[in-house]
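1st attempt posting a full record on here, be nice pls
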Amino acid sequence: MADAAVFKSDIKPDWCPGCGDFGVLNSLQKACADLNLEPHQVMIVSGIGCSSNLPGFFNSYGLHTLHGRSLPVASGVKLGNSDLTVIATGGDGDGYGIGAGHFVHSMRRNLDITYIVMDNQIYGLTTGQASPTTERMIKTKSTPQGNLESQLNPIALALAGGASFVARGFSGEPTHLAELYKQAIRHKGFALVDVFSPCMTYNKNNTYTWFKERIYKLEDQRHDPKNFEAAMARSQEWGTQIPIGVFYQNERMTYEEGEPAMAHGAMSKLPFKPLDPSILLEFV
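the predicted structure (as tokens):
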């Protein structure tokens, strides 16, 4: 087992004290070490937001992209070098708001990518507006009279969208979260890990205490992650009882396995073959 310290960057996290993203980062470093991965085997891709600063704090290949665009960039990375362990990271606003379209299409394509969403139910970087996962009637900077929009259910959306691995964790349960990451990374196909990652500064409703009073682990209830209907039913639970763990897992052909251009291995490692100029004459 490798030492998690190998994945610690020289750049220190600048999140607010108590931010749940610290637990997300530490658990991911532990998971990659437990899987005996090396920094050069991992690529972290993020969008925009507090959570999307994570690649800078993680010692591996990394790319900080545009708002909501982490998944198409991560897809391009995976198609270019399928040997890499590709992990996309971001927040609920980045992934379920502006990036929602990419989220849906990445799931149905089923590329072998792990997507970690730090779900704090608020826009933290822009100082506290309602996000897609903010509960109804919660007062925020953008909804001073209470949020009138329905709360997005990312677990149900992932199940309906065709994700082949759907899980939810809590940054206040770092050991359990690291195990979820390991399962997600090992899984061949698109894996979502939605993580409750409390924002101590701008979300005074969904705190560590709030979650600890409500969460329970699916494995303790003998939930069968192969049962789609049971997973969908569990995804609807919210309020006094909120499940974390693996909701659903289904092994099916990945996009890479079905793409003829990748039949001979990672495209970035194939020998370069110059284009025959005579082919171009057919189009003149």
